[in-house]
Structure formats: C-alpha cells, structure tokens
C-alpha cells in the first residue's frame, strides 16, 4: 500500500480549515485508514472541528479490538459527532461548527468507505467513479428532478450541505463497499478539489503521473491553477493489488 496526503489553503481563503490523515499501517482492527475532513463555522470553529474529528477518530479506532470495519467506523463517528456537538453547545467561539468526513479502509481488494457531507471519494481506473454521494441541498434537488447541474441556482448553492459532523446531536453516515481491480487508485478529497477540477480532468492528470505524491501534487496544482477558491485537500492511495 502506498498513499500521500496533501492540503493547501488555496488562492482565496486566509486560513485552512481542512484536515487530512493517511496511514498505511494498522489502526486498531483496521489494516489502514485514510480520511479528509472539511471544517465549517469560522476559522477557529471549522479548523478545530476538522482536526478534532480526524484525531479523535484515529484514537477511537485505534482502541478497537474486535468487530468489523463498518461497525467500528460507525461507532467512532457517532461518538465523535456527539463530542463535537457538546463542545459547540458549550463554547461561544465554537458555536455553529461542524465538519465533513470522508474516510476509507482498504482491506485486500475490498474498499470500505464512510461519508458525511460533500467531501468525496473516487475510484479511478479505466474510468473515474464517484463512490460517495454529496450530502448537499443541490444534489438532493437534482435527485428529485427539481434542479439541473447547469442552472444558476445550482452554482449559487453548491456549498449548502445537509449533513455534517458536530452540527446536531446525531448524524447518519453513508457506507459503501467497493471491489477494487488491479491498477485502481483511491482518491479522497474536499470540495476545494472537486469544485475546481472536473472528473475527467482528474482522470487525465492521474493517468499522467506515477507515484502517489506526484499525483496528489499535480491535482493540487490544477485546483490552484483553476482558481483555488477554497481549501484543497487530497488523499491518494495506490492499493497495489498486483496483476496490472
């Protein structure tokens, strides 16, 4: 397994409220763990929420000694969400804070994914596949047939998310289980990448790079080159399944 994690403030924002984590080594019962969190709620609140969520998740998952991947992540997310919510209710400077979380575990040829918010996970091989579904108002309206992606209303409301960690006393994560093929790459990212670099361009960039570090940095540069209107966070994983 090889991975690389990068995060950047972008070209417009004055602070970075994203947080990334990537470990190719075991974390409790998990064989590895990868995560991107995109905080919200002002500089202090958003930055605190994303860092707390990542570090606390790693701590909780590291202490798990039994169970399966999905149940372990679900339990940890439930606890982290409630802890962040309590802090937001207790401290004035943290009121309204929250964070997206997209997390992944690669176990052999199986990819496990958890998602809350609009940070994304892609599997990139013969094509670029978005595995997660954005928890955003515009995507919900598109799914209901009330909005199109090329409309002005869609563009103006892209940042309105409908689920986040720490905003309410409970939250529901989406889980996905994906079969990986030899040569597949796994990309986790904040919307600072997905809003700046179209899916087909992401695929083209990664086709032209070798190592995870080269690929992650090339994506980061493309997002900044295209405007860098938000913080940009990327975790790129090569599962190294063999048979390529």
**Arithmetic mean of pLDDT:** 93
Structural class: alpha+beta
CATH fold category name: Phosphatase 2c, domain 1
Profile the largest sheet.
Answer: 6 strands, antiparallel
* CATH top level class name: Alpha Beta
How many strand segments?
Answer: 11
Shape descriptor:
globular
SSE topology string: EEEHHEEEEEHHEEHHHE
C-alpha end-to-end distance: 15 Å
Per CATH, the superfamily is PPM-type phosphatase domain
Taking Cα atoms only, what radius of gyration do you get, to the nearest Å?
17 Å
- Second rung of CATH, namely the architecture: 4-Layer Sandwich
Structure annotation, total helices: 7
The domain tally reads: 1
Low-confidence stretches: none
Please estimate the helix content. 25-40%
- Beta-strand percentage range: 25-35%
Question: Topology of this protein?
Answer:
Blueprint: E1 2-8, E2 18-23, E3 33-40, H1 42-62, H2 69-90, E4 98-99, E5 101-107, E6 110-116, E7 120-124, E8 128-130, H3 137-143, H4 152-156, E9 174-179, E10 185-189, H5 191-194, H6 199-207, H7 212-225, E11 232-238
Antiparallel strand pairs: 1-11, 2-3, 3-4, 3-5, 5-6, 6-9, 7-8, 7-10, 10-11
Helix pairs in contact: 1-2
